[in-house]
Design a protein that fits this description.
53 residues; two-stranded parallel ribbon; 2 strands
Length: 53
């Protein structure tokens, strides 16, 4: 049940500056490298992979 109530609390902590979003994102890849992002995800590499438009 943590998932049901965790996102709101996390958003509050990010907004308050308690959590640093940069620490959670290990990779930022352009949309052109979406395949590479998917391969990293499947290989279990990184924490969060952000695909940028």
């Amino acid at each position: 049940m943590a998932v049901l109530h965790g996102y709101e609390r996390a958003a509050e902590l990010f907004a308050a500056g308690v959590l640093d979003p940069v620490a959670f994102i290990s990779d930022r890849l352009p949309l052109a490298d979406c395949t590479g992002a998917w391969q990293q995800f499947q290989a279990g590499k990184g924490r969060k992979i952000q695909v940028l438009p």
